[in-house]
Design a protein that fits this description.
This protein has 312 residues and is of the alpha/beta class. It is built from ten helices and ten strands. Strands 1-2-3-4-5-6-7-10 form an eight-stranded parallel β-barrel, surrounded by six helices. A two-stranded antiparallel sheet has the order 8-9. Helix 7 (207-216) links the parallel strand 5 (194-198) and strand 6. The termini are far apart.
Length: 312
């Protein structure tokens, strides 16, 4: 069989009227492992991750019961906040109702549409390095369920994790992760949802580690969810440069921590944006706020700074 590179594949399907069905039907062995070749100029769009307000969601595992009750929000109110700050919304899965229904998903989609808010994606917590068995099956099942949820409320992208070594070798953990990702990507392709692997510690703590997996997963529905604050290495900005060509979503962190550093340092937002533009990135740059300052104060300021750079 003649091998088709991802560059050739994407250039062909981008102009095909039936591109969606064509991509979903191709066998994984026909797909390649190259950076995305995007025509045109860089295009960055502003989004905000619901995770930024994790302490304040009425639904969610991170809610701080000691916080100000007046600041509590639901997911629909988060959409309103994004509307007020003129950005898209990354609707993190952690803060959806525990008893999630189809009615809520379509209600969320309608509410976002009426407020003029684009849903840039969602994010799930998962571990794909479990050995074969019930735990692994449950993780894969959960991600596939969220693929369905994402399709229902209009999220085009889902952030996924790899995981840690689970009592085996790093090589075996990597193999298990790749197998799970390919299976989930096959399903995601049938629903029109991209999956993005985050550089999130564990077996993907270094740029070389995450790129090895990203290059190995043979699917046009897969790429890198580039978290700008998650490389705790000697030169995080160099790692971002290496990874940016594979990004399908970017989560911007206000702080970075280098290897061996006692303290975090403010992220150089201008430098991060330049790295993305140099890679001809075209997609969302979502603020995912984790710093100590009250998000109700810090997030509006950071969104304004990001808006100037993203639109420049």
């Amino acid at each position: 069989m003649q091998t088709t590179t991802r560059r050739e594949f994407l250039s062909r399907t981008s102009v095909a009227a039936a591109g969606l069905s064509a991509m979903a039907s191709l066998a994984p062995s026909a797909l390649a492992i190259e950076p995305f070749a995007r025509a045109g100029k860089p295009k960055l769009m502003l989004s905000l991750a619901a995770y930024s307000f994790r302490q304040y969601f009425k639904d969610g595992k991170d809610t701080d019961a000691k916080g100000d009750p007046a600041k509590r929000i639901y997911m629909l109110q988060f959409i309103d906040y994004c509307a007020e700050h003129d950005c898209a919304a990354e609707a993190t899965s952690y803060y959806f109702p525990a008893q999630l229904t189809d009615e809520f998903l379509v209600k969320l989609k309608r509410h976002a549409f009426l407020r003029g808010v684009a849903i840039s994606g969602t994010a799930v917590g998962n571990t794909f390095t479990h050995p074969p068995g019930p735990k692994r099956d449950a993780e894969i099942k959960s991600v596939k369920e969220w693929i369905d949820h994402a399709a229902a409320f209009g999220a085009p992208h889902i952030r996924v994790f790899a995981g840690n070594v689970q009592g085996t070798s790093k090589e075996e953990a990597r193999k298990l992760c790749i197998e799970a990702l390919e299976g989930c990507c096959d399903y995601a392709g049938t629903r029109g949802v991209m999956l993005g692997l985050e550089n999130h510690g564990g077996i993907v703590s270094e740029a070389a580690d995450v790129l090895e997996i990203v290059r190995a997963v043979k699917s046009p529905w897969f790429g890198l969810n580039l978290d700008t604050g998650n490389f705790h290495t000697d030169d995080p900005y160099r790692d971002l440069e290496l990874c940016a060509p594979y990004a399908v979503n970017v989560q911007f962190k206000a702080e970075m921590r280098r290897r061996g550093a006692a303290k975090v340092e403010p992220a150089d937002m201008k430098r991060v944006v330049k790295i993305l533009r140099d890679a001809n990135y075209q997609g969302y740059m979502a603020l995912e706020y984790e710093a100590a300052e009250d998000p109700w104060i810090a997030v509006p300021r950071l969104l304004k700074e990001m808006s100037v750079l993203v639109g420049g």
